[in-house]
């Protein structure tokens, strides 16, 4: 059970030619990689799309929060 809990891991991604870092728990990094593979795009491209969607929101969350919310929504939709 201890392996289910892990602090966030910081990784660099590139969005619109700019590098930024995101801190996500390993389970979210795994889900993000799986989603990118399923959609046939690089992780950076998927994060850029999530970033564009979050910026368009009325009350945009931070990028890491937006990634988590996007992944949970994807799971609950059954994509």
Q: Explain this structure to me?
A:
By secondary structure, the protein is an alpha+beta fold. It has three helices and two strands; from the N terminus they run ββααα. The chain has helices at about 25-40, 45-55, 65-75; strands at about 10-15, 20-25. The protein has a two-stranded antiparallel sheet. Strand 1 (about 10-15) and strand 2 (about 20-25) form a beta hairpin. Helix 2 crosses helix 3. The termini are far apart.
Short description:
With 79 residues, the protein is an alpha+beta fold. 53% of the residues lie in helices and 18% in strands.
Q: Which strand-content bin applies to the residues?
A: 15-25%
* Largest sheet descriptor: 2 strands, antiparallel
* Approximate shape: globular
Assign a percent range to the helix content.
40-55%
Main sheet: strand order: 1-2
The number of distinct β-strands equals 2
Cα radius of gyration in angstroms: 13 Å
Calculate the terminal CA-CA distance, rounded to whole Å: 27 Å
Summarize the helix and strand pattern as letters. Answer: EEHHH
Structural class: alpha+beta
- Could you name the ranges where pLDDT drops below 50 across 5 or more consecutive residues? none
The overall pLDDT, averaged over residues, is 92
Number of helices: 3
């Amino acid at each position: 059970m201890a392996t289910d809990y892990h602090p966030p891991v910081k990784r660099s991604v590139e969005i619109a030619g700019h590098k930024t870092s995101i801190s996500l728990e390993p389970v979210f990094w795994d889900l993000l990689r799986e989603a990118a593979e399923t959609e046939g795009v690089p992780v950076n491209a998927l994060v850029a799309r999530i970033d564009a969607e979050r910026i368009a929101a009325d009350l945009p969350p931070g990028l890491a929060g937006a990634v988590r919310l996007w992944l949970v929504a994807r799971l609950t939709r059954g994509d």
